[in-house]
UniProtKB/TrEMBL annotation, chain A:
Residues 1-20 are annotated as: Disordered. It holds the Pfam family MbnB_TglH_ChrH. Signal peptide: none annotated. This is DUF692 domain-containing protein. It comes from Marinobacter flavimaris. SUPFAM superfamilies: Xylose isomerase-like.
UniProtKB/TrEMBL annotation, chain B:
Pfam families: DUF2063. Residues 5-86 form the Putative DNA-binding domain. The lineage of its organism: Bacteria, Pseudomonadati, Pseudomonadota, Gammaproteobacteria, Pseudomonadales. This is DUF2063 domain-containing protein. It comes from the Bacteria.
Length: 303, 249
């Protein structure tokens, strides 16, 4: 069972007012030619599990000058099945190579047995927020932290299906995970907004604010911002990271910063990629939003 | 339904075993995973896709996904069994070379992700007068194989957006008509995997070198005097196929 808070050292953190973007293969040439003007780069861990090759070499070169945040998409921390040893071994090898500022994955399941054989679902699959889910998620987070010898952060996901029974709301579930494992959190603002919209809540902005207010702020290690796309005559909003952060996302981000203070912030853009310049432009917007909040805080400090 | 059953059933739904897991919007996940599976195979098997076209390739990829399913967390691992699986698929009746083409795509990707060794030029000083006491070192990252189809030409032709306009396409067509195949060497140039047809003599030599014999055993005692051999060795070194020499103790 979890609660190993004393055994999972966190890495030295980035300053809270830092901004990063995701590094995807389309932009390898850009980052090799010019040092990125962002504070850190995020990569999807599994894309660098290979022994060698272009991705591994690029990451090695880039990580020498720019801090890297390793973001997994496949561990399936909420799976009833334990994360396979082979997965943890490959992740550990990557962590040792890159020495990232943060290692993270999602609160979802991916692994399950069918007819006794272990399979991987290939997506961020939702879990109900029950005591049973909590136990398995805490075990897997614990297992990963022990395997890596360091703290990880866990991100809230979009869930397009609803469960009949939950013992917790999502924020309370995440807080309980933090309490049991000593892990950190990634607050994905877009995911909260998408869930609010898809659940047809009356006021999505209020929903986001209440959600953030309920979270353990001290555990939030990174904020994620992204765009999403409506499908099926706008019946559902899909978190596809295929467009800019919407205005509502920037407004929510501003409110979150005012509530919890600046945090390292990642602009996620995975599909329909823009130019490297445009992507960095999104990072600049986030940096400006952080400065606005910091300036406001300073102007209210007693002299 | 307990948590374990829910997770198993949901995966069974994603793989097409169950029509409806009883949860609204589940299709969002099924469509998403299927799209990722197709994308992963497109990335790993570009020549197969170019040969079949997007629609037939998608159908084939989804057949594979539903039968084999996903067993690893890394999408780039997905599809390693695709070449041998294709043999039993009905598509091989009309394109019997498809499995070998997939195998070549797979090897190119594998070589690109391998620990491809650098040439240790100094080590060639180990080649002395007694060729029975030293051997050549083959790059452990490279691949080579024989095919009864002209797959190197098919592979080369389909790197073009208009394969029919290439000489390689014409050559492949001619060779298929005559029932002739090719031996293929897959190596790396920079980060890129390359494939080229090699002679029966060359592939036999590479096979022999893989067994780590002495130079004398592999090529004969007087080989260093042969211009053909030195030219061949230089070519193999320039492609990092042979990466050094070592004394046999």
């Amino acid at each position: 069972m979890g609660n190993r808070q004393d055994n999972v050292p966190a890495k030295p953190e980035l300053a809270s007012s830092t901004v990063g973007v995701g590094l995807r293969p389309d932009h390898y040439q850009d980052v090799l030619e010019h040092t990125p003007s962002v504070d850190f780069l995020e990569v999807h861990s599994e894309n660098f599990f290979a022994e060698a090759g272009i991705a591994v070499d690029v990451l090695k070169e880039v990580s020498a000058s720019t801090p890297i945040s390793l973001h997994g998409t496949s561990a399936g921390l909420g799976s009833v099945e334990a994360i396979p040893d082979d997965y943890l071994k490959r992740l550990k090898r990557l962590v040792d190579r890159v020495d990232p500022i943060l290692v993270s994955d999602h609160l979802c399941f991916t692994w399950a047995r069918i007819g006794g054989r272990l399979f991987h679902g290939g997506d961020l699959l939702p879990i109900p927020y029950t005591e049973d889910s909590l136990r398995h998620a805490a075990n897997n987070i614990d297992r990963m932290q022990q395997a890596l010898g360091r703290q990880i952060a866990v991100e809230n996901v979009c869930a397009y299906i609803e469960f009949d029974h939950n013992d917790f709301d999502e924020a309370a579930f995440l807080n309980e995970i933090v309490a049991r494992t000593g892990c950190g959190l990634i607050l994905d603002i877009n995911n909260v907004m998408v869930n609010a919209r898809n659940a047809r809540v009356g006021d999505p902005a209020d929903f986001v604010d209440d959600y953030v207010a309920s979270l353990d702020h001290s555990a939030i290690a990174e904020i994620h911002l992204a765009g999403s796309t409506p499908v099926d005559r706008e019946e559902l909003l899909i978190d596809d990271h295929a467009c800019p952060v919407p205005e509502a996302g920037w407004h929510a981000y501003g409110r979150v910063l005012r509530k919890i203070g600046p945090r390292p912030t990642l602009i996620e853009w995975d599909n329909n990629l823009p130019s490297w310049r445009e992507l960095q432009g999104e990072a600049i917007k986030a940096r400006k939003a952080q400065r606005r909040v910091l300036n406001r805080e300073r102007s209210h400090e007693p002299v | 339904m307990n948590l374990s059953e829910y997770q198993s059933q949901f995966l069974a739904f994603l793989f097409g075993d169950i029509k409806n897991p009883g949860l609204p919007n589940s299709d969002v996940y099924r469509f998403g995973v299927e799209a990722k599976a197709v994308r992963a195979l497109e990335h790993s098997y570009p020549t197969v896709k170019a040969l079949l076209g997007p629609s037939a390739f998608e159908e084939l990829a989804l057949d594979y996904f539903r039968v084999i399913r996903k067993q690893s967390g890394d999408w780039s691992d997905f599809g390693w069994g695709f070449p041998s699986w294709i043999i039993s698929h009905r598509i091989s009746d009309r394109a019997p070379y498809l499995s070998d083409v997939a195998r070549l795509d797979n090897y190119v990707g594998r070589v690109e992700r391998s620990q491809y060794q650098e040439v240790d030029f100094q080590s060639f000083s180990a080649i002395g007068e007694d060729l029975s006491t030293c051997r050549l070192i083959l790059n452990s990252g490279l691949e080579f194989f024989r095919s009864v189809y002209p797959i190197a030409s098919i592979w080369e032709a389909h790197k073009s957006h208009t394969p029919q306009d290439t000489l390689s396409f014409a050559q492949a067509k001619r060779m298929i008509a005559k029932g002739r195949g090719q031996n293929v060497l897959v190596y790396r140039s920079g980060w890129r995997g390359m494939a080229e047809a090699i002679s029966e003599k060359d592939i036999a030599l590479l096979e022999r070198l893989r067994k780590q014999p002495s130079i004398a055993e592999a090529f004969g005692e007087g080989v260093l005097d042969e211009t053909n051999f030195t030219g061949w060795l230089q070519d193999m070194i320039s492609k990092r196929v042979i990466v050094g020499a070592r004394t046999i103790h």
